[in-house]
Amino acid sequence: MSVLSFRLKGPLPGRVDASPLLPHRLAALTVTEIAALPLRLGRGHVVVGELFDLSGGPGDTVEIEGDGRLDFVGAGQSSGTIRIAGAVGHRAGTGMSGGVLVVEGSAGLAAGAAMRGGVLTIGGDAGNELGGALPGERTGMMGGRILVRGSCGDRVGERMRRGLIAVGGDTGAYAALHMNAGSLLIGGRPGAATGHGMRNGTILFRGEIDPLPGFADCGLNQLPFLSLLDNHLSELDGVPPACRGLTGRARRWLGDRGFGGRGELLSCL
Amino acid sequence: MSDAYTLLRGGRVCDPAGAADGTALHGPPRDLYLKDGHIAATPPEGARIGEVVDLDGRIVMAGAIDIHSHIGGGKVNLARLLLPEEHREHGSGPDGLRRSGSGLFTPSSFVTGYRYAEMGYTAAFEPAMLPSNARHTHLELADVPIIDKGCYAVLGNDDFLLERLAAGATQSEVNDYVAWILHATQAVGVKVVNPGGISAFKFNQRRLDLDEAHPHYGITPRRILTTLATALSDLGVPHPLHVHCNNLGIPGNESVTRDTITALDGLPAHLTHLQFHSYGTEGDRRFSSAAAEIAESVNRSPNISVDVGQIIFGQTITASADIMSQFRNSGLASPRKWVCTDIECDGGCGLVPFRYRDKAFVNALQWAIGLELFLLIEDPWRVYLTTDHPNGGPFTSYPHLIRLLMDRSFRNEQLARINPDVAAHSRLGSIDREYTLEEIAIMTRAGPARVLGLRDRGHLRPGAVADVVVYDDLPDREAMFAAPALVFKNGRLVARNGQLTATGWGDTIVVRPEFDSAIERRLKPWFEDHQTVRLGNFRIADGEILDHGRGGLSIVPTLTASDSCF
């Protein structure tokens, strides 16, 4: 299996749109053609060869040296593997429908927004709107998995409809805002207004929480599905350890009743 | 100023509003001289000819004019916000000539100007500027490049007028108010949207017929309509009242449309997007075409001009001040999101995204009704080509629409593809008429110019603004009108073969009828008590439009007793 590597020649001079660097697209090109591909840089364009040294051969794996100004990495990815050594900018894996995107460092805003399939793994922290919705859209994430080892910003999983998000660290405010379905696992502390406007779906976390008044306390429960979920998580790569070890005992709240919602907050013991 | 002429040599000039020899389409080719942004008379011997463009018998027309196209202002902006996916999918970056922009059926302001110019359109009119949104509208239109633009101020649901009418205001007071609004908002005409209906909606009325009293003010749409039409006629505003009739989109609304024509009783008026107002209730589905009845009524009324508001199959968004109808249609939104809102008690704003499907009986019949209207209204001087952009479809579908009108076999091919029940419910298949190039030139240029009172546009006589479009005479009229060979705006080449070559700024077209400024004594306290801005700040100054030379103002002369309206 051949691997194509992009090594940065130096720090990026501005924000770069890396969305053309998808394995299935590059597989059809030669290295010379890839070096001549135009990428958006700010308001203008730059060719790949000016920013990166290329090595290896096009195949189904792409390795890119990361930079906080490299945006749209893996946006629209449908197959293959992209591995980023370092951080990425905004909108990594936006609209992703398949394949694997591994970010070893941190990700900026809206990583995995409007995701439909595939796996996005982030080794560091993620910014606001992780696995969220594109502006103006009625639905956010519709499938796939997002696994974050560190913490994330506000509005993770906004308008989520399907799929799984696991965050090893803390989440910001308004986690799972207007969630419709799907699962959000929080290894650290949930932020303010978690689950606001949720209609369905599940948010799992540890420890104490002061839920919004729209959530009805349903007391302590023994939920067999949690051990099934834990089994499932054990089979997956890259699940943050803080999200593992679910025993099945959980305190449960239903809401957000202010929106006629029947989603659940589960404080797992 | 330059003393050199540009010579467009040997074109077949199609200029129905021109001199007696104007329609030289079948005669010998003619030369056209442009100088200082205007069409010039044949210069004397020895005059300096700067540039010669050989047209080799290509067809020459004046720049096209879109009389009704929602291209700016509050509701268009809300429409853009409502459908970000449209703008994500249809974006374009700057290329040295163009600025960046986006959108397909609610294009951003720059894209709007570029696309119109590339299609040979040199003027477009925003038909629904709420007075309280006027400044926003003008600021946005100031960013529409190349083309000339104008706005119709929306009246007829504003509480000031309704309250004054209910209190028994005289016609002359209304005249002064209308004229004041035209001045203050820099408008070129007045539109009335669902007269009284938008206001009645706020009092929980869900439909309002022509002689139904407003639940609060007690006045009827008929009264509002005739008062406003009379006001414009008294003031000598060339563009007559632009009427969006009551009960848009309701099966059976054809009676209200015909009653409206009767109610106007000879007063000039322009009925807009007539297609949406020509529905009957016959047949199993209680939805049928009343195009024949409406067309007959229009044919019999020389005071009435119309534009059609043809629908084009595909995704678009409906944007209208008529919240009564938009609220009713909100359940049909596709994708499933919509906005209905009041705007400063002046009117309303409803946005419902919509996909016209050719296999759906209702949509397919709407399509047929629009074409029936085009083909059954006999006088091309009184029916204009519109899709009510973006309500029926984007303005970029005009070339397709022109082909439907000019090519009967193409039309029947399309008719055979859509919902089969429509052919049985519509007489479209049996209509033989095909529009000629002269008739297209009338309905897209000469006619709109005349009904708007634009004396120096829409024709190619000496003295006219040098907005000139040159077409290759292709058998496929859609290809021909989609990408004109050359487009000149103010004598400058701006597009070649449907591609932009230069950009610039057009004029804002306004009308300034005389009035008694004593009306401000009544308006001032009204603004103080009920509006969010004071009267002095409400008024848009010329300088705001002129913007240090970037914009221009073109004032349409008012009519005097000796002018005929039509």
TrEMBL record, chain A:
Organism from which the protein derives: Azospirillum oryzae
Alphabetical list of InterPro entries matching this protein: Formylmethanofuran_DH_suC (IPR017550), Glu_synth_asu_C_sf (IPR036485)
Gene Ontology molecular function terms on file: formylmethanofuran dehydrogenase activity; transition metal ion binding
Keyword Coiled coil annotated: no
Name listed for the protein in its UniProt record: Formylmethanofuran dehydrogenase subunit C
Keywords: Plasmid
GO biological process: one example: methanogenesis
UniProtKB/TrEMBL annotation, chain B:
Domain of life, source organism: Bacteria
Pfam families found in the cross-reference section: Amidohydro_3
InterPro entries documented for this protein: Amidohydro_3 (IPR013108), Formylmethanofuran_DH_asu (IPR012027), Metal-dep_hydrolase_composite (IPR011059), Metal_Hydrolase (IPR032466), Metallo-dep_Hydrolases_sf (IPR050378)
GO molecular function, one term: hydrolase activity, acting on carbon-nitrogen (but not peptide) bonds
Domain Amidohydrolase residue range list: 51-494
Coiled coil: none
Keyword set, alphabetical order: Plasmid
Protein name: Formylmethanofuran dehydrogenase subunit A
Lineage: Bacteria, Pseudomonadati, Pseudomonadota, Alphaproteobacteria, Rhodospirillales
